[in-house]
Amino acid sequence: MTKDLLARHRSVLPDWLALYYEDPLEITHGEGRHVWDAEGNRYLDFFGGILTTMTAHALPEITKAVSDQAGRILHSSTLYLNRPMVELAERVAHLSGIPDARVFFTTSGTEANDTALLLATAYRHSNTILAMRNSYHGRSFSAVGITGNRGWSPTSLSPLQTLYVHGGVRTRGPYAALDDDAFIAACVADLKDLLGHTRPPAALIAEPIQGVGGFTSPPDGLYAAFREVLAERGILWIADEVQTGWGRTGEHFWGWQAHARSGPPDLVTFAKGIGNGSSIGGVIARAEIMNCLDSNSISTFGGTQITMAAGLANLTYLLEHDLQGNARRVGGLLIERLRAVAAQVPAVREVRGRGLMIGIELTRPGTDQADPEAASTVLEAARAGGLLIGKGGGHDTSALRIAPPLSLTVAEAEEGAAVLEDALRSLG
Hints:
The protein is α/β, with parallel strands linked by helices. The strands form 3 sheets. The protein has a 7-stranded mixed sheet with strand order 4-10-9-8-7-5-6, with helices on both faces. It has helices at 2-12, 48-51, 60-70, 83-96, 109-124, 141-146, 180-195, 222-232, 287-290, 305-320, 323-342, 372-384, 410-425, and strands at 27-31, 34-37, 42-45, 101-106, 128-132, 161-165, 203-206, 236-240, 267-270, 281-286, 348-354, 357-362, 387-388, 390-392, 399-402. The mean pLDDT is 96. It contains 13 helices and 15 strands. The longest helix has 20 residues, at 323-342. It starts with a helix and ends with a helix. Helix content is 37%, strand content 16%.
């Protein structure tokens, strides 16, 4: 059945639509932290539909909320008052840390970043954007135009002028040998120099932890130092929290809070985990920025009732069960366990991350060269052992991405770590 579905997939869908595994699998159902494929095989899910199944598969509280809402009304658009949308916006605005916050809902992280770029460029009357090297912000025309990761950038054409800044990757690049304070100082000096060579940009957009780029991040405080430079010039800071938001990093509810010395961002984009699989994205911004548009706009599907019901139930469960704290505790144990394994595997260059957002960078043993073949080998071996993980990386890097649902138990973390240990040791 799976081979037939694969043939049908290839005959009707784009060639560039990537599939994991030499023999792709069809996931048919899930429960908790596990999923099953069409052949009945059970897997521990350490990737959660690309960090989207944040709480758990088939969580009763969410399925009931969705079912109840579906029995009333699925959708009406933003042209009508929408109680679930208002309620979720109120909660998100309160949690954002942004004063006088307004929230606009979209259907994806890509669309959220598009909206943030529209707001920033309109507010600042500039189409110049600062972005981080190794970044990823989505697959739309404008989002691809600011993405600093060649593997996910199919065109150089863009409606924006994009300038790339150092700092998103701590252990590679020209400043890697510096200590944290000197690293930050060098990146700030580079930013100031860059700003001296261009017309005033609209904004800097940055992921607190780069997702597709392999879960890389700068030292704490880098974006706070950047913000001081930006604020002096009126340049906005957009925090792309599509992968880092809602407590995944354990230490903070938002990734930007590791860089909070200079205050919150001007705009925050979010998606993925808030819907736990439902299509929710959005932008949070100060009212003066959100309200700067001088023409009409609506969203047909952003904030639709059924996704808002899912988001409300998911957020309530996450907060009431302290899943951020669980990510900190269980994620900390998992990182230490993986670092102990990595110390005995020459192909592992680094185990990094926070909470339940963990990257394992692989290189050819004895070198600093990326080894994407090794990443694929481990991905396959992990699947054979009953574990689903992801992979990523940017310029000359290859990394495994580990991001289970935030309700992961200690026993499940140990089970997954054991499978990963065997898969990594298979590299020889």
